[in-house]
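**Protein of interest**
===
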Amino acid sequence: RETGARTGQVAVPQPGGLAYAADGALMVVSGTQVLRISGGAAAPLIETGLEQPVDVALDAGGRLFVTDRGSQQVKVFAKDGAFSHAIGAKGGRPQPGAWVADALRNPRGVTVDVQGRVWVVEEDMWPKRVSVWTADGQLVRDFIGPATYGGMGAAADPADKTRLFGNGCEYRLDYETNQASVAANVLAGSLVGDLVKFGGREYFMVKRNELYLRRGDALVPVARFGQIRVQELAKSGLPVTPPEGAGEAFTYLWSDGNDDGAMQAAEFATSAKHGLDTGYWGGYWLDEGFNLVSAPGGYGRQTVSLVPLKGFTAGGAPVWDVAGQRLVAERESPGPNKLFLAADGLIIVGSPLAALAADGTVRWTYADNWPDVHGSHHAPIPGRDDQLVGTLSCIGTANTPFGKVFALNSNMGRLFLFTTDGLFVASVFQDCRIGPESWPAEMKRGAPLG
């Protein structure tokens, strides 16, 4: 190690993580064992007690910390390889299910810092988690995140400001301590969308055309729609047959007719008249009556349509009248076409930014000359706070004394707030091309973010 000289080669079957001991020996995960390599030879140090080891780390005293995917724990061994104890609840954390803070899910990387604390990285997207433990197995704290691209990875409960959803989890916010804790890992997937309450039930509307129903500590899929290319159908896993004359692509709508949370071929409809989609960024595609609103993406001509709600299954899955889908409007759009939201009897689309009534009448428009990512690249530095640059999608709504407000995020970092009747309210943050001031030294409510 110190001279760069090569001392030999050792064959290690099924190698995994590795770590150096203080004496220069190399500890290597190999299959279900940990080998000690020294002097050009390898010998088993830990031969039993591991099911699916992944990584290994050592502390200052030579103890070994091994992430074991089989038991969902970090197992601790003495310097001589004798088992000592495990960190984390055996079997790990359920998904979906109530949050178990002192449990791991798919532990992978592990290291020990100079204070003797054990840091564990979990190999899971929803949520991404790094946890910190004492060497004897007490949880110190964890870190969860980050947000998704475009700052779209969170949704609040409009009736309860302590509830937040994102990264597959429901969080509880404590405004007194400025802390957040996880209440449940409700979904093994992204939660970019909005919490919707209807008929005494809670749903989560994912912006990219999926709907989930809250059942206990889990979000269960109950609906999905979109457009798919025939050649990609097999790879998608959707049990749907292309309609006659589908050509290269077709539209589908799935609703969970038997309430089992799974897709069956008989539950699919493919007879939509005007396409069903909400564009690249997706949109808030349910209106207050739970009708499905569609505005496919692309450039040029934009088609906006509505599929009326027929009712619900006994288990709460919505059923829409696909045959009754009606055209709301067709309009010229330089693009990119977007659906932002449907609210207050209006369907708000872009580009340009416009609000359509149920009969297709344009109620209001707002100048949006540099929309989306590529449009923002050619935009001048904004001279006014109400000048839109790089608008992407709707990321939330709120009821206020002056009407329902919705927020649009943007590629240049600003949020733009509007009322549904077309009033520009405010912009939040500043254009990222303007030299930013320092972020506040302390994260707390009321800190200046202008």
